Protein backbone atom coordinates (compact mmCIF):
# COMPACT_ATOMS: atom_id res chain seq x y z
CA UNK A 1 0.00 0.00 0.00
CA UNK A 2 1.39 3.38 -1.00
CA UNK A 3 0.40 6.52 0.88
CA UNK A 4 -2.08 8.60 -1.12
CA UNK A 5 -0.72 11.85 -2.49
CA UNK A 6 -3.73 13.71 -1.11
CA UNK A 7 -6.11 12.59 1.61
CA UNK A 8 -9.21 14.48 2.62
CA UNK A 9 -10.88 13.47 5.86
CA UNK A 10 -14.33 14.76 6.82
CA UNK A 11 -13.81 18.05 5.02
CA UNK A 12 -16.69 20.51 5.38
CA UNK A 13 -17.07 24.04 4.12
CA UNK A 14 -19.79 26.54 4.79
CA UNK A 15 -20.24 30.03 3.44
CA UNK A 16 -22.31 31.63 6.21
CA UNK A 17 -25.39 29.45 6.44
CA UNK A 18 -24.77 27.84 3.05
CA UNK A 19 -23.29 24.38 3.65
CA UNK A 20 -21.32 23.88 0.42
CA UNK A 21 -19.54 20.67 1.54
CA UNK A 22 -20.31 18.18 4.32
CA UNK A 23 -17.85 15.57 5.62
CA UNK A 24 -16.07 14.72 2.39
CA UNK A 25 -13.42 12.00 2.59
CA UNK A 26 -11.37 11.21 -0.51
CA UNK A 27 -8.00 9.92 -1.60
CA UNK A 28 -6.00 10.96 -4.64
CA UNK A 29 -3.27 8.55 -5.74
CA UNK A 30 -0.29 8.98 -8.06
CA UNK A 31 -0.93 7.70 -11.56
CA UNK A 32 -4.70 7.75 -11.10
CA UNK A 33 -7.45 9.91 -12.52
CA UNK A 34 -10.14 10.80 -10.02
CA UNK A 35 -13.27 12.13 -11.71
CA UNK A 36 -15.33 14.45 -9.58
CA UNK A 37 -18.91 14.44 -10.74
CA UNK A 38 -22.07 16.19 -9.67
CA UNK A 39 -24.75 18.62 -10.71
CA UNK A 40 -24.46 22.43 -10.75
CA UNK A 41 -23.85 23.75 -7.25
CA UNK A 42 -22.96 20.29 -5.88
CA UNK A 43 -19.72 21.62 -4.39
CA UNK A 44 -17.12 20.43 -6.91
CA UNK A 45 -15.38 23.78 -7.42
CA UNK A 46 -15.47 24.45 -3.67
CA UNK A 47 -13.69 21.14 -3.05
CA UNK A 48 -11.11 22.01 -5.68
CA UNK A 49 -10.56 25.45 -4.18
CA UNK A 50 -9.80 23.76 -0.85
CA UNK A 51 -7.26 21.46 -2.53
CA UNK A 52 -5.63 24.41 -4.28
CA UNK A 53 -5.35 26.79 -1.33
CA UNK A 54 -8.09 29.23 -2.40
CA UNK A 55 -10.39 28.31 0.52
CA UNK A 56 -9.63 26.77 3.89
CA UNK A 57 -11.96 24.02 5.09
CA UNK A 58 -14.38 24.98 7.90
CA UNK A 59 -13.54 21.60 9.46
CA UNK A 60 -11.76 18.39 8.55
CA UNK A 61 -8.20 17.77 7.41
CA UNK A 62 -6.19 17.68 4.19
CA UNK A 63 -2.99 15.63 4.11
CA UNK A 64 -0.21 15.60 1.55
CA UNK A 65 1.60 12.24 1.59
CA UNK A 66 0.15 11.52 5.01
CA UNK A 67 1.14 14.85 6.60
CA UNK A 68 -1.60 17.31 7.58
CA UNK A 69 -1.39 20.62 5.74
CA UNK A 70 -3.21 23.93 5.83
CA UNK A 71 -2.71 25.93 2.66
CA UNK A 72 -2.62 29.64 3.44
CA UNK A 73 -2.59 30.60 -0.23
CA UNK A 74 -2.71 29.12 -3.73
CA UNK A 75 1.08 29.50 -3.76
CA UNK A 76 1.39 27.16 -0.75
CA UNK A 77 -0.52 24.48 -2.68
CA UNK A 78 1.48 25.12 -5.82
CA UNK A 79 4.74 24.83 -3.82
CA UNK A 80 3.91 21.20 -2.95
CA UNK A 81 3.19 20.46 -6.61
CA UNK A 82 -0.57 20.96 -6.86
CA UNK A 83 -1.40 22.70 -10.15
CA UNK A 84 -4.97 23.79 -10.70
CA UNK A 85 -6.77 24.92 -13.79
CA UNK A 86 -9.81 26.68 -12.36
CA UNK A 87 -13.23 26.66 -13.99
CA UNK A 88 -13.23 30.40 -14.53
CA UNK A 89 -10.27 32.67 -15.09
CA UNK A 90 -6.95 31.55 -13.69
CA UNK A 91 -5.10 33.76 -16.11
CA UNK A 92 -4.37 37.47 -16.11
CA UNK A 93 -6.14 39.29 -18.95
CA UNK A 94 -3.65 42.17 -19.19
CA UNK A 95 -0.56 39.96 -19.22
CA UNK A 96 1.00 38.57 -22.33
CA UNK A 97 0.49 34.88 -23.00
CA UNK A 98 4.20 34.21 -22.30
CA UNK A 99 4.21 36.22 -19.05
CA UNK A 100 1.19 34.31 -17.91
CA UNK A 101 2.79 30.98 -18.77
CA UNK A 102 5.89 31.82 -16.70
CA UNK A 103 4.27 33.54 -13.69
CA UNK A 104 6.34 32.38 -10.72
CA UNK A 105 8.89 30.63 -12.97
CA UNK A 106 10.31 33.52 -15.02
CA UNK A 107 13.29 32.52 -17.18
CA UNK A 108 16.13 34.98 -16.82
CA UNK A 109 19.00 36.10 -18.96
CA UNK A 110 22.24 37.70 -17.82
CA UNK A 111 23.94 37.72 -14.46
CA UNK A 112 22.53 39.16 -11.24
CA UNK A 113 21.73 42.04 -10.76
CA UNK A 114 21.10 42.31 -14.50
CA UNK A 115 18.72 39.39 -14.82
CA UNK A 116 15.71 40.15 -16.94
CA UNK A 117 12.77 38.27 -18.35
CA UNK A 118 13.77 36.77 -21.69
CA UNK A 119 10.67 37.57 -23.71
CA UNK A 120 11.84 35.79 -26.83
CA UNK A 121 12.68 32.47 -25.15
CA UNK A 122 9.52 32.64 -23.03
CA UNK A 123 7.40 33.34 -26.08
CA UNK A 124 8.88 30.46 -28.05
CA UNK A 125 8.38 27.96 -25.23
CA UNK A 126 4.81 29.12 -24.60
CA UNK A 127 3.81 28.91 -28.26
CA UNK A 128 5.46 25.48 -28.62
CA UNK A 129 3.80 24.06 -25.49
CA UNK A 130 0.37 25.34 -26.55
CA UNK A 131 0.85 23.88 -30.02
CA UNK A 132 1.43 20.50 -28.39
CA UNK A 133 -2.15 20.81 -27.09
CA UNK A 134 -3.45 21.56 -30.56
CA UNK A 135 -3.73 25.33 -30.07
CA UNK A 136 -2.19 26.48 -33.31
CA UNK A 137 -3.71 29.94 -33.68
CA UNK A 138 -1.58 31.45 -30.94
CA UNK A 139 1.72 32.04 -32.71
CA UNK A 140 2.97 35.06 -30.77
CA UNK A 141 3.82 34.91 -27.05
CA UNK A 142 3.31 38.67 -26.69
CA UNK A 143 -0.45 38.46 -27.35
CA UNK A 144 -2.63 39.47 -24.41
CA UNK A 145 -4.21 36.63 -22.48
CA UNK A 146 -7.47 38.60 -22.36
CA UNK A 147 -7.75 38.28 -26.14
CA UNK A 148 -7.69 34.45 -26.07
CA UNK A 149 -10.84 32.38 -26.30
CA UNK A 150 -12.00 30.48 -23.20
CA UNK A 151 -10.65 27.23 -24.57
CA UNK A 152 -7.31 28.75 -25.50
CA UNK A 153 -7.01 30.17 -21.99
CA UNK A 154 -7.77 26.78 -20.42
CA UNK A 155 -5.18 25.20 -22.69
CA UNK A 156 -2.60 27.80 -21.64
CA UNK A 157 -3.19 26.94 -18.00
CA UNK A 158 -2.97 23.18 -18.64
CA UNK A 159 0.17 23.60 -20.73
CA UNK A 160 1.95 25.48 -17.94
CA UNK A 161 0.92 22.93 -15.27
CA UNK A 162 2.27 20.06 -17.37
CA UNK A 163 5.41 21.95 -18.40
CA UNK A 164 6.38 22.84 -14.82
CA UNK A 165 5.96 19.27 -13.61
CA UNK A 166 2.98 19.23 -11.28
CA UNK A 167 2.49 16.19 -9.01
CA UNK A 168 -1.23 16.76 -8.80
CA UNK A 169 -3.06 18.23 -11.76
CA UNK A 170 -6.54 19.50 -10.96
CA UNK A 171 -8.80 20.38 -13.87
CA UNK A 172 -12.17 22.02 -13.16
CA UNK A 173 -14.29 21.41 -16.26
CA UNK A 174 -11.42 21.84 -18.69
CA UNK A 175 -13.35 20.47 -21.64
CA UNK A 176 -16.63 22.37 -21.23
CA UNK A 177 -15.43 25.36 -23.30
CA UNK A 178 -13.48 23.30 -25.81
CA UNK A 179 -14.22 22.00 -29.27
CA UNK A 180 -14.04 18.30 -30.10
CA UNK A 181 -10.44 18.44 -31.27
CA UNK A 182 -9.21 20.37 -28.22
CA UNK A 183 -11.25 18.18 -25.83
CA UNK A 184 -9.55 15.14 -27.27
CA UNK A 185 -6.20 16.81 -26.68
CA UNK A 186 -7.10 17.52 -23.06
CA UNK A 187 -8.15 13.89 -22.53
CA UNK A 188 -4.88 12.83 -24.12
CA UNK A 189 -2.95 15.13 -21.75
CA UNK A 190 -4.81 13.60 -18.82
CA UNK A 191 -3.76 10.11 -19.92
CA UNK A 192 -0.22 11.33 -20.55
CA UNK A 193 -0.03 12.92 -17.06
CA UNK A 194 -1.41 9.71 -15.53
CA UNK A 195 1.21 7.60 -17.30
CA UNK A 196 3.91 9.83 -15.78
CA UNK A 197 2.59 9.09 -12.29
CA UNK A 198 0.81 12.42 -11.84
CA UNK A 199 -2.41 12.33 -9.82
CA UNK A 200 -5.22 13.93 -11.80
CA UNK A 201 -8.48 15.31 -10.42
CA UNK A 202 -10.86 15.88 -13.30
CA UNK A 203 -14.19 17.68 -12.90
CA UNK A 204 -16.58 17.23 -15.78
CA UNK A 205 -20.25 17.13 -16.72
CA UNK A 206 -19.45 14.97 -19.71
CA UNK A 207 -19.99 11.29 -18.95
CA UNK A 208 -18.18 10.16 -22.08
CA UNK A 209 -15.09 12.16 -21.11
CA UNK A 210 -15.25 10.87 -17.52
CA UNK A 211 -15.61 7.24 -18.56
CA UNK A 212 -12.81 7.59 -21.10
CA UNK A 213 -10.14 8.56 -18.58
CA UNK A 214 -11.38 7.92 -15.02
CA UNK A 215 -9.91 5.27 -12.69
CA UNK A 216 -11.98 6.37 -9.70
CA UNK A 217 -15.13 8.41 -9.46
CA UNK A 218 -16.67 10.44 -6.66
CA UNK A 219 -20.14 11.93 -7.00
CA UNK A 220 -21.24 14.96 -5.01
CA UNK A 221 -24.90 15.72 -4.45
CA UNK A 222 -25.75 18.86 -2.43
CA UNK A 223 -22.29 18.98 -0.89
CA UNK A 224 -22.27 15.35 0.27
CA UNK A 225 -20.40 12.43 -1.24
CA UNK A 226 -23.24 10.36 -2.65
CA UNK A 227 -21.16 7.64 -4.27
CA UNK A 228 -17.58 6.59 -4.74
CA UNK A 229 -16.53 3.81 -7.14
CA UNK A 230 -13.85 2.47 -9.43
CA UNK A 231 -13.84 2.11 -13.19
CA UNK A 232 -16.18 -0.66 -14.29
CA UNK A 233 -18.25 -0.73 -11.08
CA UNK A 234 -21.18 1.32 -12.46
CA UNK A 235 -22.94 1.33 -15.80
CA UNK A 236 -23.01 4.37 -18.03
CA UNK A 237 -26.68 4.91 -17.16
CA UNK A 238 -26.02 4.75 -13.41
CA UNK A 239 -23.25 7.32 -13.77
CA UNK A 240 -25.43 9.65 -15.85
CA UNK A 241 -28.23 9.48 -13.29
CA UNK A 242 -25.80 10.22 -10.45
CA UNK A 243 -24.43 13.17 -12.40
CA UNK A 244 -27.93 14.58 -12.67
CA UNK A 245 -28.12 14.64 -8.88
CA UNK A 246 -29.69 11.19 -8.60
CA UNK A 247 -32.61 11.88 -10.99
CA UNK A 248 -33.23 9.43 -13.79
CA UNK A 249 -31.71 10.94 -16.92
CA UNK A 250 -34.17 9.10 -19.16
CA UNK A 251 -37.08 10.91 -17.45
CA UNK A 252 -35.35 14.29 -17.73
CA UNK A 253 -34.67 13.70 -21.41
CA UNK A 254 -38.30 12.71 -22.03
CA UNK A 255 -39.43 15.94 -20.33
CA UNK A 256 -36.98 17.96 -22.42
CA UNK A 257 -38.26 16.30 -25.59
CA UNK A 258 -41.84 17.22 -24.62
CA UNK A 259 -40.83 20.86 -24.11
CA UNK A 260 -38.91 21.18 -27.34
CA UNK A 261 -41.19 19.08 -29.53
CA UNK A 262 -40.02 17.08 -32.52
CA UNK A 263 -37.12 18.51 -34.50
CA UNK A 264 -38.41 20.14 -37.72
CA UNK A 265 -36.79 18.96 -40.89
CA UNK A 266 -37.13 21.05 -44.01
CA UNK A 267 -39.03 19.31 -46.81
N1 LIG B 1 -17.49 32.17 -2.38
C1 LIG B 1 -18.70 31.70 -2.12
N2 LIG B 1 -19.54 32.34 -1.27
C2 LIG B 1 -20.76 31.86 -0.99
N3 LIG B 1 -21.27 30.73 -1.50
C3 LIG B 1 -20.50 30.05 -2.36
C4 LIG B 1 -19.18 30.49 -2.72
N4 LIG B 1 -18.65 29.60 -3.59
C5 LIG B 1 -19.58 28.65 -3.78
N5 LIG B 1 -20.70 28.91 -3.04
C6 LIG B 1 -21.90 28.08 -2.97
O1 LIG B 1 -21.51 26.74 -2.69
C7 LIG B 1 -22.28 25.82 -3.43
C8 LIG B 1 -21.38 24.93 -4.27
O2 LIG B 1 -20.81 25.70 -5.31
P1 LIG B 1 -19.69 25.14 -6.29
O3 LIG B 1 -19.21 26.27 -7.11
O4 LIG B 1 -18.69 24.39 -5.49
O5 LIG B 1 -20.54 24.12 -7.19
P2 LIG B 1 -20.08 23.24 -8.46
O6 LIG B 1 -20.35 21.81 -8.10
O7 LIG B 1 -18.71 23.59 -8.86
O8 LIG B 1 -21.13 23.69 -9.57
P3 LIG B 1 -20.96 23.87 -11.20
O9 LIG B 1 -21.13 22.50 -11.79
O10 LIG B 1 -22.10 24.76 -11.55
O11 LIG B 1 -19.64 24.49 -11.46
C9 LIG B 1 -23.28 26.64 -4.23
O12 LIG B 1 -24.48 26.68 -3.51
C10 LIG B 1 -22.64 28.00 -4.30
O13 LIG B 1 -23.59 29.01 -4.42
MG1 LIG C 1 -17.90 24.40 -10.56
From TrEMBL:
ATP-binding in keyword set: yes
Gene3D superfamilies: P-loop containing nucleotide triphosphate hydrolases (3.40.50.300)
GO MF assignments: ATP binding; ATP hydrolysis activity
Pfam families given in the database record: ABC_tran
InterPro entries per record: AAA+_ATPase, ABC_carbohydrate_import_ATPase, ABC_transporter-like_ATP-bd, P-loop_NTPase
Keyword Transcription regulation: no
UniProt keywords, alphabetically: ATP-binding, Nucleotide-binding
Residue ranges annotated for the ABC transporter domain, each copy included: 6-247
Protein known as: ATP-binding cassette domain-containing protein
Amino acid sequence: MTTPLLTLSDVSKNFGTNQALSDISLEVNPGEVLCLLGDNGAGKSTLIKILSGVHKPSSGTVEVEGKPVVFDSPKAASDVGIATVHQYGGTFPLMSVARCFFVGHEPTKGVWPFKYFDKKAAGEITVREMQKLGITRVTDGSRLTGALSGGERQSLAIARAVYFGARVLILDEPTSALGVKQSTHVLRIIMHARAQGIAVVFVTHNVTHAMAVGDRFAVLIHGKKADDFRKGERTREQITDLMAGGEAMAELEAELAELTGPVQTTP
